[in-house]
């Protein structure tokens, strides 16, 4: 037991000495422990460039979102117009008549007017 107690005391003394030396170095000579910030500068500049690029992409995405919202509004209005035109019934004579082609596309042809 006495050997274990002595070993514990020795390890505790080493811990105290190591922590004291580390505290002294951090307070008095921190340059020896901390990295050289001159080497970190290019990394910092690259990170800054990446941040600027991200913000530019975010702004561009905002612009595209605004454009698409206008397009979505227009498409909704066109769809609403089609629904009201389909509910109105057949087109009057002499007007524009849709001709359905394959693929579901419509081609508008004017009926010839007889004079």
From TrEMBL:
Protein name, per record: Uncharacterized protein
UniProt organism field: Eleginops maclovinus (Patagonian blennie)
């Amino acid at each position: 037991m006495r050997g274990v107690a002595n070993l514990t005391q020795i390890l505790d003394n080493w811990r105290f000495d190591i922590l004291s030396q580390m505290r002294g170095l951090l307070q008095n000579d921190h340059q020896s422990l901390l990295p050289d910030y001159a080497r970190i500068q290019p990394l910092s500049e690259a990170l800054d460039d990446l941040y600027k690029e991200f913000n530019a992409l975010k702004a561009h995405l905002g612009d595209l979102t605004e454009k698409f919202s206008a397009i979505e509004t227009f498409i909704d209005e066109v769809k609403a117009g089609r629904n009201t035109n389909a509910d109105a019934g057949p087109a009057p004579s002499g007007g524009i008549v849709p001709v359905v082609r394959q693929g579901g596309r419509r081609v508008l042809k004017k009926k010839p007017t007889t004079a």
